[in-house]
Amino acid sequence: MKQRYFSTFQLILLALFSALVVVAKIALRTPLQLSGHSGIFWMAIVVVGAKVVPKPGAASVIGVTSGILASFLGLGDFGVLNTFLSYSLLGVASDMVLWLLGGNAENVVVAVLVGMFGHLSKFLVKWVFGILSGAPIGFVALGLLRAIIGYIVFGAIGGFLGWLTLKALRRAGFFAYLAEKR
């Protein structure tokens, strides 16, 4: 019998992290009015989820599943396709950075870089949709630098918070508990 890549338990964990990303988008509203500020919550959840299920593709599953959930719930400000692609690419980019850096999200530098590049990929989806929709690029370019900096900074903060969460989970014995369940 062929063994599956993700166990049922791991898929349930990934689905829970995906739902947590969507719940964070709905429930955790901060009045900062800065581009990308919600990345603080999203990227922390993706970093933690990628370590709890330590297989390549875990962050992508979180991204795609949360993209489907967010699209069906009508979240996002530029339509269903943009919402789905934003969430999905966030997960895929996070997986790519984890893969390139060795996959250890418990390293603070790796966690911060995953947060930065994962969240920046979400910005890139919005930018490409702006170009495809015919938005005046000269006008849009005026606000791009501030937005890019916001996405990078808030993504990095989210990656750092994910790293702190992983440290707390390690101290609490969560990973030893997971090892027993396998």
Order of helices and strands: HHHHHHH
Distance between the termini: 19 Å
Helical segment tally?
Answer: 7
Rounded average pLDDT: 85
- Percent in strands: under 5%
Radius of gyration: 16 Å
Q: Helical content, roughly?
A: over 70%
Q: Main beta sheet: strand number and arrangement?
A: none
Flag low-confidence runs.
Answer: none
Structural class: mainly alpha
Q: Could you tell me the number of beta strands?
A: 0
What characteristic shape results from the CA principal axes? globular
Task: Explain the overall architecture.
The chain has helices at residues 8-27, 39-52, 58-73, 80-100, 108-132, 137-172, 174-181. It is mostly helical. It is globular and about 55 Å long. The model has no long low-confidence stretch (mean pLDDT 85).
Q: What labels describe this entry?
A:
0% strand; 182 residues; mainly alpha
Secondary-structure map:
Elements: H1 8-27, H2 39-52, H3 58-73, H4 80-100, H5 108-132, H6 137-172, H7 174-181
Helix pairs in contact: 1-2, 1-3, 2-3, 2-5, 2-6, 3-4, 4-5, 5-6
Short structural summary:
This protein is an all-alpha fold and 182 residues long.
